[in-house]
Design a protein that fits this description.
single chain
């Protein structure tokens, strides 16, 4: 038994169309992946009812030492 492979003009056009479509899709996918890798990820928003972290208090001020005659 012998198989004969013949590619008609219509089959060649279909192969060319599929290859061109695949190339365009891979190009667009590469652009989208590049955009997502280039932009920093935004932190997720807090859900409703979840308290935010408390604010950091301001640093303490330096206090002068007590007078030498004062009792502790």
């Amino acid at each position: 038994m012998q198989y004969t492979l013949s590619l008609t003009t219509r089959m060649m056009a279909l192969v060319a169309f599929c290859l061109a479509t695949l190339a365009v899709l891979l190009f667009v996918a590469g652009i989208e992946i590049g955009r997502r890798m280039a932009t920093p990820a935004e932190p997720p928003a807090l859900a409703a009812g979840v308290p935010a972290l408390p604010s950091i208090p301001s640093p303490a001020r330096e206090v002068a030492p007590a007078a030498s005659g004062a009792k502790p």
